[in-house]
Write a structure and sequence with these properties.
Radius of gyration: 21 Å
Largest sheet: none
Order of helices and strands: HHHHHHHHHHHHHHH
Helix content: over 70%
Shape: globular
Structural class: mainly alpha
Number of helices: 15
Strand content: under 5%
């Protein structure tokens, strides 16, 4: 309720009131890590970088045995423009995993840091234990595919993500990531194989649906073939400005 009330204030350009609501909620519920993290993110939006870091760091001091407190510190440090200390960020995520070895959110963030630093074997070893323990292991498999790509294995990564999505078609992060790869790699064959028919997971996601249509156009589908789907999409999401801008870009590309 506190976060919802604050979001409403921010949506009406009442930032001071929104911050006051979050601070009031946190004073009453100091162990509400989501509330603390939300306040930190709002402080960063106002470029109060150090205040945000101090806030979440106080959470780790008050609740050192709660993994979510350390995870929030890592995320806040990553988002802060004044903290490029990857070692400190890595320590925060490792502390979260020490407190709770099954904190997959911390493991996933840590795997990214390791991947960016080309410590691929270390990242894969860490993620391996989540494959058999998560009720839905698709996030672990998805990050493993991402590591393949970071290592330069582009085709293998695309194939791994494709196989994952065929078994876990609800995995939205995997779809968004694979679509980005298809744009970058211009793999027309895989685009048509995966996207000629709209995946069920795309139905309520305007972003995925529009990206699919842009990819199909790049893969050779004609404007005549795609126009009915664009019309259906725009009717389903009439207030989505980004969607309309993408449609305009698609039409301009067609006439260029």
């Amino acid at each position: 309720a506190w976060i919802w009330r604050a979001d409403m204030a921010f949506s009406h350009a009442q930032a001071a009131e929104g911050l006051a609501i979050l601070r009031q909620g946190l004073a009453l519920q100091p162990n509400a890590h989501e509330l603390r993290h939300s306040l930190a993110m709002r402080l960063q939006e106002g470029q109060e970088w150090q205040a945000a870091v101090d806030l979440v760091e106080a959470g780790t001091q008050r609740y050192p045995h709660e993994a979510e407190a350390w995870y929030s510190l890592g995320k806040t440090l990553q988002a802060s423009q004044r903290h490029a200390d990857l070692a400190r960020i890595e320590r925060a995520y490792r502390q979260a995993l020490q407190v709770n070895p099954m904190a997959h959110n911390a493991a996933d963030e840590l795997a990214q840091i390791l991947g960016y630093n080309q410590r691929f074997a270390e990242a894969r070893t860490m993620l391996a234990r989540f494959v058999g323990s998560l009720s839905d292991p698709s996030p672990a498999y998805g990050r493993l595919a991402w590591l393949m790509r970071e290592e330069g294995q582009h085709e293998a990564a695309r194939q791994a993500m494709k196989d994952l999505l065929q078994g876990s078609p609800w995995y939205h992060w995997g779809w968004r990531t694979l679509l980005d790869w298809l744009f970058e790699d211009e793999d027309q064959e895989l685009t048509l194989t995966l996207l000629k028919e709209m995946p069920a997971a795309f139905q309520d996601d305007a972003n995925l649906r529009s990206l699919r249509l842009l990819l199909l156009a790049k893969a050779g589908q004609s404007e005549e073939q795609l126009t009915p789907e664009w019309q259906s999409l725009l009717e389903a999401f009439p207030r989505d400005l980004n969607l309309h801008l993408r449609r305009i870009d698609a039409l301009l590309a067609e006439t260029a």
